[in-house]
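Figure 3 (text version): structure tokens given as input.
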């Protein structure tokens, strides 16, 4: 089995592909020759502006009153940073946004850090998308592995991920 086959048959790309099939989505998983682990790496690998890369940032939002852990994702343009204080305010209740460890990310999303896709996440996941991604006709997001991506439009990203638009979550 080649490295390409090994990657495509690993759990992340398989989960991503199953989501596409289950939801009848005509999206192609693109296997890169070099890593897309960071926005800069992805932009270089694909040959696009770093702003056209969707950073999938995973957080644990710990509710203030119950202490319950909640999976939250911020989809941020590759040339921006996430404003975590603004994101916390959008979530309400005075809870705390925490950067989770790799085990939390994998157990909650089914993906490993560096390849977390905004598609195929649990229904209860709160996903917010940075409106600055709308500057680009095409954007690129992770598809389950650091070497796998997919091309989307801003509107399709919102539709397929069930994301909530926000112009406050990036700086």
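Below: residues designed for each position.
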């Amino acid at each position: 089995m080649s490295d390409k086959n090994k990657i495509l048959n690993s759990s992340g790309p398989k989960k991503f592909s199953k989501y596409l099939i289950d939801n009848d989505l005509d999206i192609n998983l693109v296997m890169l020759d070099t890593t897309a682990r960071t926005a800069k790496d992805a932009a270089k690998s694909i040959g696009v502006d770093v702003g056209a890369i969707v950073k999938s940032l995973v957080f644990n939002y710990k509710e203030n009153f119950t202490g319950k852990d909640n999976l939250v994702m911020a989809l941020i343009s590759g040339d921006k940073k996430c404003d975590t204080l603004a994101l916390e305010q959008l979530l309400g209740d005075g809870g705390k946004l925490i950067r989770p460890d790799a085990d939390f990310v994998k157990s909650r999303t089914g993906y490993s850090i560096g390849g977390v896709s905004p598609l195929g996440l649990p229904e209860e996941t709160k996903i917010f998308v940075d409106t600055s991604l709308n500057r680009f006709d095409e954007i690129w997001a992770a598809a389950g592995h650091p070497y796998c991506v997919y091309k989307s439009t801003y509107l399709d990203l919102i539709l397929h991920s069930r994301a909530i638009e926000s112009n406050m979550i990036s700086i």
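The longest strand covers residues 54-62.
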